[in-house]
Each structure stands twice: as structure tokens, then as C-alpha cells.
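Case study: Fused MFS/spermidine synthase.
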Amino acid sequence: MSHRPEATADRNLPLIFLFAATLFTSASLMFVLQPLFGKILLPLLGGSPAVWNTCMVFYQSILFLGYLYAHYLSTRHAQHRQIQIHTALILISFLALPLALPENTVPPTDSNPTFWLLWTLFLAIGLPFFVVSTTAPLIQKWFANVGHHTSHDPYYLYAASNTGSLIALLSYPFLLEPNIGLANQKSYWSAGYLLLCLLIAGCAFVLWKNCRGEFIRPGRINSPLQDAEAVTATDENNLSLATQLHWLALALVPSSLLLGLTNFISTDIASVPLLWIIPLTLYLLSFVIVFSKWNDKIHPLMVKLQPLFLLPFIAYAFINPADLPYWAYLILHLLAFFFAVMVCHGELAKLRPHTRHLTTFYLIMSFAGMLGGMFNTFVAPFVFNAVYEYPIMIIAALLLRPGLKLTLNSGLLLQIIVPALLVIIGIIAHATVDNLLQYFDIIVIGLMGLTLLTYLLRARPVGFALMTGAIIFLALGLHGLSSHTLYQQRSFFGVLAVREAVLTDEQGQPESYHELFHGTTKHGAQRLAAHLSKIPLTYYSRPGPMGQLFKEYDGNDQAWNIGVVGLGAGALACYAKDQQNWTLYEIDPLVVDIAGNPAYFSYLSQCAPNAAMRIGDARLSLEKEPDQHFDLLVMDAFSSDSVPTHLLTKEALALYFKKLKPTGILAFHMTNRHLSLKKVLSINAEALHLASLIQEFQPQQDIPLVVATDWVVMAKHAETLEPLRLSRLGKWQKMPLYFDMKPWTDDFTNIVSIWK
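Here is what the predicted structure looks like once written out:
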């Protein structure tokens, strides 16, 4: 890479600070706006992880358009004209301030809401986000033309941009969200946006002054010496189609891998709050490192270490995952992800071109990011019934290791044929061997042996990647076979699976039953024998809190109007009586299809065939119901293991009691592995002066499919709940009081404060 003569170059340090501060502020605003607006939109779509992924596609798409604009502006217009056009764009963007959702924003209930979500984001934040997204390439391009002694290589400023992204990302859940409400967050973001515009104006002033009144054509450099250097640099960085496709692949795979891993760990490892922050933090950190001065030393180390860490990752994350707790899985996946993106992004940084092609380089990077996001959001959910895009991108990342040679010869053919034969043998064995699971241990040992052999192929990216892919394919097939999955499908709201399992009945005999999973969380189960199929199980069992509630009020609930938010397998419906009116609320149409299919679960068809069904977000659906309509309202809405936060707020509780009769009861399911939901409910009940009882139920006997579960019941008057408290059916107690956090509202929630 050529260098300008430093004797005549500007060494002004404040100049670096101005441009770095502009990029830092821009990236910070971008990564505060993403969770901020995601939080505004999540309540409308039940808190699904797909909301975040769809938002990411929007951000990546606008980022690409911003980079395209910066590329067009810097290559087609003189520098004075660039400043004039960009100033006009910034002034137009002020029309979108302050940030707010469009009026009467209601998502569709009968179709996939992805396109509705994208359109809503475009209307609400499209213009300011577009301006923010143009900053990184445009400001770096301007810096390349201001005559500073580092202008020949402005890529190090990209580290400032990604540092801003990283700090903003981490500060949001731990600093901004716990201390500032949504309304103030939007106001402060608007103020930050105005500050960014002033910083951009400062950069524009420096560029304008450097032009000395001349309308310099883009791509031109002031001195003949610099012109000669630019020609040499262009020759050295010939932008062939192969080079541009290589850039595209190196940026696309990490982008897709990021979303795939986020979805995978939220679905298949643990639905832990804010878990998505960790992969995104590692993703941004990789950019900070590879575009720093240290990449020349760090990149070869990453290339060497990646195969070493891949061995335990493949062995324990895919082949034999039964031996590790979820946090160990998480560490394995995060390490494998970090090495993959470091290798890809390290190659990308190593191949960065002369500043003449800076905007082209960033344009291809942003386009690749957008393609990766679109593949995960628009293609994968319709092609795959689980998160298979994640292992596919792991294999693709291995293909992009340095040393890839596609010259057709016997060595390359062997690298392709051997993994292909391995997959074919696995498919034939699955189709012809009657009880393949009896060889489970032998197959697992064989796959682990093959994993060790793949290390020998680390210098041959094709063989290394394809052999790893064959092992992952066979491991996934083996575990799919062992899980006895009857049905698995993927919707906007997650991966749903119906599985057949075996229990030991009361007589000590094996008995088959069906269970429903959302991700890794069981959402219900049903025994199949005719005389047992109407018995509610798991969280809704007769010995448990819900069974106790229905038994205690058995004498006066004959004509109750009952609403249930969250369908699951439909077990609660088997408490229904003929004179009662039941209304079931469910956000995911796929759950309705599964619960209504007697081949999987027959609770609904046997116990409440005439129950009214409402599809859509619970709060939006309940708003349409008459006031003082329900005698009992059961809140059982979960996305995997998480209750959507907007169903826990003070305003949500006020809505529920508006729809309940004066003597009505609210029952809240709060079983959770990671969150202490009782803190939120206790504080909000106290704020609304509601009576409440809690039972953290533990089965006293070993009854099949009766599990530990936590429930809270609330009423306007304590005497409504007094029969339940005095009954000997269970250990109902008054809710404990908490004083260490504020009530949750639609404007303020703080997940960190309720982590167990």
C-alpha cells in the first residue's frame, strides 16, 4: 500500500479526534437505536426472537443503502457538491424527529408479520437511520482527502466506529435501560442525532477548506506524485470480479452466522434474557481487532487456533451434547463463532484496497451483511424446520480459511468424494437398518474419531469444511432419530416440536405420551390412553396450583367466563365445564394448528371443542373485549422460557383488571429458569393495591408428568382470594414485598434486575 510523503502532510491530532468522534457518535447512535426501537416493537409481536432478527435485516438493508449512497456521492460528485447534497439530506431527515411509531400500528394476525415489521421500521426511523448509516464510509472517504499524514489508510478509523457500536450495545441493557424510560431514551437519541449532525458539519468544513475553492473531481488527488501513487495502488488492488466476490463471501458468512447463532442459542441452548448481546459483542469486537494495527500478528494466530477449538466444539456441541450443562454449550458455541468471524474478518481486513476503492469495499461489505440477514430471515424459516442455517454457515466459514485452491485435480476430488460417501453411507444406514439407535454409542465414537482426523485437513479448506459438514449432518440426523420427533416446524415465533416419549406408569409399565416443545422448553404433555387423555399435566396438573384453584371454586364457577392467554398443548381446557364460556388467546397460528390436531394432542377436541379462539398479541386482543367480562383470566404466555415483558407491566395489569369482574381472579404462570418474575408482579400489585398470593409448587409424590411450577393469583379484594388461602389444597402465601426496583411500566423495564 503506497504512502504519501509525510513531510508535506498535516499531522494535526485534533483532526483525527474530530473524524473519530464523528464515527464513534454515529455508531453509538446506531446501536442504541436498534435495541431502543426493538423494545418498542417487541410488545406488538409477543417478544419473539424473530422480531430482533427481522429488525437486524432492516438495519442491514438501510446500512447497505447508506453505503450505496456514500459510494455514489463520493465517486460521482465533486467534494463541494458532496457536502451540499449531504447537508440537504440531513435537513430532510429532521422531519422524522422525534422518534415515534406511526399511528394505529397493529400487526397482522393471519399472516407472517415480517413485511409489516419492515414497513413500520421504515416509516418510523428510516430517514435518520439512513443518515447515520452513511457516516462510516463517507466520513472515512472525506478523511482520505483532507491531507492528513494518515489519510492514505483511514481504515483504522473503522475501529473507532466499531468501538462506539460496542460501547453502545453494552451500555443499553446495563446503563440506559435500567435508568432511563423509553420516552426519555427517544428524546436523548434525538439530541445525540443533532450532535452527530454538528460533527458531520465540522468534518465537511475541514474538507471544504482543504479543497481551497477548487471543485476537485472525486478520485482525483491534488499532486502529480499522489496521482502516480494512486495509479500504482489501483494496479496493485485490481478489483476483479473474483476479488469482489471474495469480499462478499468473507462478509456474508459472519453476518449470517451471527443471526444463526443468536437464533440457535435462544432456541436450542437457553432462552436467557439478553443472550443475543454476547454474539453481537463478539462480532463487533472482531472488527475492532482486525482493523487495528495488531491484525498482522493476530490473524495468523487465529487461523492456527481455529481448528484446535473446533475439535471439542464439534465433539460436544453436535456429536455428544448430553455430557455438558447449557453454560458449557454456550461457551463452546461462542468460542467457535468468535474464531470463525475473526478468521473471515481478518482475511477481509488483509485484503482491504487502496482508498480509491474504499467506498466500494464498504459497499460490498454492507451488501453482504444484508444478504446474510435476508437469508436467515426470509429464506431459512421457509426452507428449514429448525435452525439449520447455523451449521451450514459454520461449514461455509471453514471454506473461507486462507489457502483455498479450487484447481481441479485428484486431491480436490478426494476432498469432495470422501465426505460425500460418508453422508451417503449414513443415509443408507438410516433407511435400511431397523434399529439404528442400538448402535448409538458405536456411531458416536466413530464420529468423534473422524473429528480428530479432520484436524489433519486444516490446511485444506475444502476437505476440512466438507468433512466437518458431513460429521455435523450425521450427528444431527442421529439425535433427531433419538428424540422421536413426530412433527417439527418453524414459524416467525420459533421452532415447535411434538415428540413421543415414554414414562413408567403407576403399575410400573412403560407408557408412551406426547410432549410439546418450543425451543428447549416444554410447553405441555398428554398421556395417550383414553382414560388418561383428559388429565391436565405438567404445569397445569390437578395437584398443582391450577388444579387447586379450580377445585376450590368448583361450587360457584359453573357459569364463569374464562380467558386463557397462551394455548400450549391445550391442557387447561380440560378444566372447562359445559356452562362456562372459554376464550383462548394465542399469538402463533402454528400452536393453534398443533393443539387442534388430535393426532398430536386431543385436549381441545375432547374438553373444549367450542372454545373461542383469538389469534394475535394478548394485550391487543384483550383491548377489544368488553370491560368486566371475565371471572377468571389466566396468563400463560411464554416465548420458549420467557414471558414477554409487555405482559408484566403496570399498564398490562391495569388492562387485565379492567376486563375482569369486580370479584374476578387473575392467575399468572411465572415458572422460569432464569428470571425472578415474582419481583415484577409483587411490585406492580403493590403499586395497583391488588391482593395477591403465590405458590411455588413442588410435587410431594412421584406422579407421572406432575412438575414443579410457580403461580401467582391476584384480585381487587383480599376476600376474593381468602378461600384459596385458607384451603388445605396447597401452600398459598402472601406475596413477598420488594423495595429494590421501580415498578415495570410500558415506558420502563429492567431485565437485569430480576436475573436469578
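For the exam, be able to explain this: Residues 410-482 form one domain.
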